[in-house]
Design brief:
The complex is a heterodimer of chains A (328) and B (326). Chain A has 328 residues and is mainly α. Chain A has helices spanning 2-6, 8-12, 15-18, 22-41, 48-73, 81-95, 99-127, 132-151, 162-169, 178-196, 198-208, 210-215, 220-246, 258-267, 279-298, 303-321. Chain A is globular. In chain B, strands 1-2 form a two-stranded antiparallel ribbon. Classes of the chains: A mainly alpha (328), B mainly alpha (326). At the A-B interface, helix 8, helix 12, helix 14 and helix 16 of A face helix 5, helix 9, helix 11 and helix 13 of B.
Chain lengths: 328, 326
Amino acid sequence: MSETTLGGIAGRMPKFIRRADPAVVTAFACIVVLLLLGSLYSRSFLSPEYLLQQLKVASFLGVIATGMMLVILLGQIDLSVPWSVATGAMMACAAAAYGTVGVALAIPFGILCGVAIGIVNGIGVAYLRIPSMIITLATNAVAQGLMVVYTGGFSPQDSATAAMRYLATGFAVPAVPNAVIIWALIGAATVFVLTRTSFGRAVYGIGNRERAAYLSGIDTRRVVMIAFAVSGGLSAFGGVLLAGYASKAAQSMGDAYLLPSIAAVVLGGTSILGGRGSYLGTVAGVILITLLQSILSVMQMPEAGRQIIYGVVIVAMLLLYGRTPANR
Amino acid sequence: MKDWRYWLAEQRGTLLAFAIFIVMFAIYSANHPAGFTANVVQTAANKGVLLAFVAMAQTLVVITAGIDLSVGMIFTLTNCMASWLVVGTGLETAFGVIAVVGTGLLCGAVNGAIVIYGRLQPIVATIASGAVYFGLALLLRPVPGGSVNEDLADFLTGRFFGIVPASLVALFVVVLVIWVPFSRSELGRAAYAAGSSETAAYMSGVPIRRGKFLAYTLAGLLAAIGGLFLTFFTYTGEAAYASGNAYTLFSIAAVVLGGVSLFGGKGSAIGAIFGALAFRTIGDLLFVFDFDPLWQPLFQGVVLLIAVSLGAFALFRVRNRLEWFL
């Protein structure tokens, strides 16, 4: 494999580096390059405050990308992220308007709405065998329709609860933003589930070949369904955090998270065909995307240029290591 | 089996879409305050034709078992371009139209190149290329504006002989000039074959790469024609993210309603056109029944959800559970 091509150098390297996925290494290398480029542009780029701030911004994307990764590992995709995010945020804020009970239940209610969207996706994909890209687009449209009816086409007036703000912007541990802690907890749980439980093994198995997984006794349909429900819930939770960060929900707040979440997962070396990928890669992808966004905005690149660079970078990275095998 | 039964089996999706459209349009025009007049038909045609072009574009790609999530953005980009270029004297306008259509071809060719020769997954590749096209559109039109050659615009959005909507005629011409030759050509067959079973087609020496590339390229062209017509209808160019996304989404709905299989290899652009017209009519039904326009997105979303769920009926024909996992 690639270890032999590196020859003697690789032989002296510690084991964990030799075993590392080249895509993950590339992603981390790109992060370092971006940081160096950024520090050439502005000295404050390497300051701890700035880096911590970036990590905080990255954690919203990180939470959403975690759900996306689960679904992509199955060989599916979740295109309902934009309005799952917005629904989670809006419903959490809406619940906050109903007295103290509402305030207490705001966060679970928002997440639950996302789980509901995810379950519809899961039923469609797992039981009705509809291509995931199609059914998730459709549920996205339905969620958008529901929210438009609910809000009357304007951004809702309800604001986030104190708990939501605390989760997104507070500091439970000095100097470490809560959002980062949440991302770390969710990440740790995901790593545990993916590598240490039969559910996680089933996810990889289904991603490789669902037919084989089914024949080896896995209830593949239930696993797919649960994965989509989790993805919807995590998207909605990302929305709840974002609403806490901005202290209110907005109509198109989720639009900016679809492409980045897919890109983060895929740039982190997870195969878009499913069955292969590590959470470490997703972490790298999320940080990479966030840094790229941050540098572009520090350079005061207008939205148009950002979109173009973004698309080009993603295609370029995919061409580097996201290609499917050729026909034989 | 007789020939006509083969034909019927092949065209079942298209005929079903046609029937849905006729029924929906009958309900629509029967309840329209103005009734079934040339004006009502013209307005409906003008709205429907935009989606029909984008749906045709989507069909070409879906036939190859791919998907183009950037059609809406090509549509938006060409709309913005047309609002700069399709102005002035006849010659300048002609040059502008060619430039806009050429841009569409180029966008489609880029999609085709990265999907086929770059071997990337169509979903991710076209979402990313769509971001680029939207960025370019935003560069051209940071704020909505611009203009268009109004003589040409009025000619193509008006009526011939006071009855026939010009946009429908244009759609018909495009079908005759692009779709019919494509579907009957060797490369068109290759696109179908690639969608039906890429491995088998490859083994039989079918030029699948060129066929798929042509499909993606022509999809860009058709989306550009749609963008051109949008400019003729609105007289302006606007880089609207939401509208580009909506067109991508609706094109998929139209394709599904039009009986084109999302697994590739089956269906025709004619079906997708009727699917598009039917989808637009269904969306507009709310207006003739005096519902709040706020309900329209939800209504369209539910129609889309039902349309895509209809494919699940195929599950009843499954004899062996392993066929679930294609």
